[in-house]
Amino acid sequence: MASCRDNMIACLSLMVVMVSLMKGATAAEYVVGDSLGWTLPPNTSFYSDWAASKTFQLGDVVSFNWTGNHTMAEATKEEYDNCSDPGIWIASPVNVNLISAGSRYFICTVGDHCEQGQKVTITVESSSPTSAPPPPSGAHTTVASLLLGLISSTLVISFFTCM
């Protein structure tokens, strides 16, 4: 028969595992352009270079932050290539949840900002072809949080029962 001490050690071990799982389940958050943000770039390849240095996964979030006279519009590939205004744009800040694999195109629709390089393609990698799509980004964290709460409660009860 397991002692109270053994039960408490098992609960503590499970809590450590659950905290580790919660940390691994969080999606990455990216700020477009890092410290520069979403603005006129120093060169026309700045945002494409920025995006190429990242690995975007399902569930990640991309944030567009700016001040001043800018917009962010999601565009088709053709609108992106031609810097054509898609007609719908959004004011800052904007968080884009990456919930499907493939490429998404974003441009600034103000004046010639797009032509000056204020546009970015975000390519989200797909899961392996044989795996099922992942649950929504918060699902793992929610389950892990519930289990952590259950284990914590069990640990507290064990502590007081063993006294």
Question: How would you sum up this structure, described in words?
Answer:
β1, α2 and β2 (61-64) form a beta-alpha-beta unit. α1 packs antiparallel against α4. The chain is an alpha+beta fold and 163 residues long. It has a three-stranded mixed sheet, with no helix packed on it. It starts with a helix and ends with a helix. The protein contains four helices and six strands.
Secondary structural class: alpha+beta
Strand runs, count: 6
Encode the helix/strand succession as letters. HEHEEHEEEH
Low-confidence stretches: 16-24, 128-141
The number of helical runs is 4
Strand order in space, largest sheet: 1-2-4
**Mean of the pLDDT scores?**
79
- Judging from the principal axes of the Cα atoms, what is the shape? elongated
Briefly characterize the structure.
It is built from four helices and six strands.
What topology emerges from the helices and strands here?
Layout: H1 4-24, E1 29-31, H2 46-52, E2 61-64, E3 73-75, H3 77-82, E4 94-97, E5 102-107, E6 119-124, H4 139-162
